[in-house]
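Working notes for the structural subgroup meeting. M.R. asked for a predicted model of this chain before we commit to crystallization trials. I am recording the input and output together here so anyone reviewing the notebook later can reproduce the run.

Input as submitted:
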Amino acid sequence: RQMGFGYSEIQKLRDDAILVSITPFGQTGPWRDYQATDIVQYAASGIGYVNGTPDQEPLKEPGNQSHFHAGTCAFLGAATALIYRDISGVGQQVDVSTLEAVTAAFAPQLLASQHTGVSQKRRFPGLPSGLLPCKDGYVALNVRHQPTWAHLWLFFEEPEIADDPRFATPEDRRANTAELAELITPRLERFTMQELYHGLSPLRINVGMTLDIEQLVNDEHMIKRGFFVPISQSSQNGKSETQKMPGAPFKMSATPWEIRTYAPSLGQHNSEVFGQMLGHSDQQLDQWRNEDVI
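Returned structure, recorded in token form:
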């Protein structure tokens, strides 16, 4: 827009054009010209306020999830605009605000606050939920309703504990976290991550292994799926090295993904760029190599 090439100018060239605009705060409104980072978006959306525990500061989500939320909304908006154009022949601008995309993901907390009249706050998750220690690491465990609570103790072969009145409801379990920790921690520590994962998952309990990089790359499921792809690459010392890299995050039945070419090694295309494109002689390139210029 600032360069004089906004949607109105694009429409003059093609009236059925679709333009998807992704900005921190949208094309309109008093914040439209402000800049933002991922942490700013999580703070402004309210998610940071409820993320974390009440004894510590608000937290942002890991990574750059606000950008992924915005990209997802941009895809949905573009697909909707394309469908409408197929029907009507009319193009349009899709205005995506990253703040609004993140706030939309915050909808359950917004709805709860409106129903109760109380702003949602950070709280302790309460056992048995969260990141918990086991025999060889940690597992992410989520046992929130009664059926899975009962199933957890079936796995431990102590079904009577599920009927303990101190832990009858999620609210009771949250209120008696210390007592529950004394029960559940030593039982979890009898099992490995693999044993807990493959033992609890069939019982419809949400559980995940906290894998380090080596464990992730060598995970049986990931190997069977063929997600990590071995790539041979020449290092700076001229030796060939094979590394495992993430492949495509989706699989297509008709057009399988494949690596057709590798990233160039340092200086691999010097002759093409400096010689063929820029017209420097082989002697000049040799001189630069000897001088460690290239």
